[in-house]
Amino acid sequence: MALLAGPGTDRPAPAATFGAARPVIFLRDVTKTYPGGKVALRDVDLTIREGEFVFIVGPSGAGKSTLLKLLIRDEVATEGQVFIDGTDLARLGRREIPKVRRHIGTIFQDFKLLPTRTVWENVAFALEVTGMSRKRIAPLVDRVLALVGLTAQAGQLPTQLSGGEQQRTAIARALVHDPRLIIADEPTGNLDPLISWEIIQLLLRINELGVTVLMATHDAEVVTALRRRVVALEEGRVVRDELGAAYHRED
């Protein structure tokens, strides 16, 4: 499922600028300064292409969370441009923002599940708010719960689930829109190592299905073991962008 078309700017859209592997995320000269003068990101250039699995790493305060907020339009860059699938986020009207977000699956450390709704209802709610009919929702929810291995837990409340099952529910909710991009902010931060690996394996499987995955993490063991692309931030700047890399620079 594609996001909104073209950026509507006189500068070329990223999709027209690069080759056959279409950029899903494109940042150009991005700086973010908060009120009071704190610079969270400085002169960031970043391209993430369709089908990539990319880790964003760096110490606390490096700018990881701000970067992710820019990508879901929770924040707007002070300078520079942020494109998602060719759409310039700064040019979106208020009513267009939810439409773009529906095509980005977001996963958080603290799950953000609705406590009084079952697993099935939590996932279905992501479609209900778009006005989709119950008849169309049901098969989509059933399919995504099967994908994440939660069919048997569909009728349970979040309090009845393990931490790993809660995160799988959150992943199902992120997937039910059939997004082209998954943004995961410390998705294993509240999980023990064994369950963390299960969640990572699920994200890898989703990536193999063609979904681009961008994951911010402090988990050095996972990053180093998987040897995917690593983008490292320090003091708001990209200081390393390597393929097949470890969590820390290997000089």
Helix-strand layout with pairing:
Elements: H1 14-17, E1 23-33, E2 39-49, E3 53-57, H2 64-71, E4 79-84, E5 87-88, H3 97-101, E6 104-108, H4 119-128, H5 134-148, H6 163-175, E7 181-185, H7 193-208, E8 212-216, H8 220-226, E9 229-234, E10 237-242
Parallel strand pairs: 3-8, 3-9, 6-7, 7-8
Antiparallel strand pairs: 1-2, 1-4, 4-5, 9-10
Counting helices, strands and paired strands, the structural category is alpha/beta
Total number of β-strand segments?
10
State the CATH superfamily name of the domain at 53-75 and 96-242: P-loop containing nucleotide triphosphate hydrolases
Going across the biggest sheet, name each strand in turn. 6-7-8-3-9-10
Which architecture of the domain at 53-75 and 96-242 per CATH? 3-Layer(aba) Sandwich
Form type:
globular
Spans of at least 5 consecutive residues with low confidence? 1-19
**Kindly, what is the distance between the CA atoms of the first and last residues, rounded to a whole number of angstroms?**
40 Å
* Gyration radius from CA atoms, angstroms: 18 Å
For the biggest sheet, the summary is: 6 strands, mixed
Share of helix, binned: 25-40%
CATH topology name of the domain at 53-75 and 96-242: Rossmann fold
How are helices and strands ordered from N to C?
Answer: HEEEHEEHEHHHEHEHEE
